[in-house]
Amino acid sequence: MNTETLTLNDIISESLKNSMTYAEYRALVTTLVEEQSATGNDKSEAIVAYTQLNDRRMRRWDKTAKVADATKSTIENFDKKVTWLVISESWCGDAAHVMPILNKVAELNDAIDYKIVLRDDNEALMDQFLTNGGKSIPKLIMLDSETNTVLNTYGPRPTVATNMVQAYKAEHGMLTPEFKEDLQRWYNKDKGQSTIEDLVNLLK
């Protein structure tokens, strides 16, 4: 298929055909860990190690992440049928913290259909939703489930984390390993609450 002649709606429809549920994605990552492999084009040792780490992170958030009761009612009262189409890969650290939280929110309302596609298998889609020119993931595309019209996008990080990253880059020019460790600590301390807040704003 010639991607140059495809409309955005065509690209989205094609990607949805390739999509999987969160449960299928988790099963895939668990299998890849057993096989010492990873999603995407890069199967290097480092990428495999990130995948193993992320499987543990996701397992932890699947068990421990909580949505506050006051927030639950806001999510449950959302009544427009939407699809959350998320672009991800198994090795992505931000995705491991964000995707289980997306699932916790989506589980609260049948109107939200949570689907996942892999970045390297869906280049045409990724190219339509770059962040500052880069293929940053996870990237959530919120669609009208009836028409596949794009209503909004979100990601690759919660707003608070995005601001931290931008401020650090402005001061230091690049992200250091030390900063990346600080960011992981922030995710662990935040327990997904900033992501939940952002998602509620997305649904308003």
Describe the structure.
With 204 residues, the protein is α+β, with helices and mostly antiparallel strands. Helix content is 54%, strand content 12%. The protein has 9 helices and 4 strands; from the N terminus they run H-H-H-H-E-H-E-H-E-E-H-H-H. The protein has a 4-stranded mixed β-sheet, covered by helices on one side. Helix 2 (22-34) crosses helix 3 (45-64), helix 3 packs parallel to helix 5 (93-106) and helix 7 (159-172) packs antiparallel against helix 8 (177-190). The longest helix is centred in the first third of the chain and has 20 residues, at 45-64. The mean pLDDT is 96.
CATH topology: Glutaredoxin
Q: Terminal Cα separation, in Å?
A: 37 Å
Mean pLDDT: 96
Question: Looking across the biggest beta sheet, what order are the strands in?
Answer: 2-1-3-4
Task: State the helicity in percent bands.
Answer: 40-55%
Going by helix content, strand content and strand pairing, the class is alpha+beta
The SSE string, one letter per element, is HHHHEHEHEEHHH
Rg of Cα set: 17 Å
Main sheet: strands, sense, barrel: 4 strands, mixed
Give the number of helices: 9
The CATH architecture would be: 3-Layer(aba) Sandwich
The CATH class designation is Alpha Beta
Pfam families: Thioredoxin_9
Organism: Winogradskyella marina
Protein name: Thioredoxin family protein
